[in-house]
Amino acid sequence: MGIYRMNKEEVLAEMDVAEMTLRNLIENHGFPHPRKAGPQKLFWLVSEIVTWLESCPKAWGGEGAEAGSTTG
Hints:
Blueprint: E1 5-6, H1 8-15, H2 19-28, E2 35-36, E3 42-45, H3 46-54, H4 64-68
Antiparallel strand pairs: 1-3, 2-3
């Protein structure tokens, strides 16, 4: 199985966020840092993004909010 990766434009499109929001997610919310494929070429591993999403509240597509939520 190969390693799947996304460039910044693909991440922005898939997450449906602006670049400033992506920076905020990286700096303040544990979103994976990009990796370098050259002096100015960045990419993210899809597996790391999926892991992050799965740990997030449902608003971001994850299941993290269910564990601590209560109904009543």
